[in-house]
Amino acid sequence: MPSIFTKILNGEIPSYKVVETEHCFAFLDINPLAAGHTLVIPKKEVDYIFDLDELTYMQLQLTAKKVAKAIKSVVPCNRIGVAVIGLEVPHAHIHLVPINHIGDINFAKAKIQMGEDELKNLAAKIAKAYSKLP
Fold this sequence. Notes:
The protein has helices at 4-9, 54-74, 116-132; strands at residues 17-20, 24-28, 38-42, 79-83, 94-99. By secondary structure, the chain is of the alpha+beta class. It has a single domain, classed as HIT family, subunit A (2-Layer Sandwich), CATH 3.30.428.10.
């Protein structure tokens, strides 16, 4: 059975897409820790990140790096925190979270609420910033 991320990738579930490459897909988390919290997934559905083949793993990391730069150029923050937990959805993914303090990337804390227009606008801004990066 396809994961929720595969359903998002296939357009069966709507998302706030940031970028799509040949190997990866990035979209805003709808239950974010911070504005700009983005998930980067491989198009290939593999449960555990370290079970990805070399090419897919490298593409995932390179896409996450570029997406992180785009987020940082749009969302005021000190850094983009990176987390790979892998327990909540059986599809490898990287969390990119704008942070100012170490506690900002605590997944036990309350999620922020963002409206649909806010999410659409933010996704568009990050996508635009991404498209301008080398």
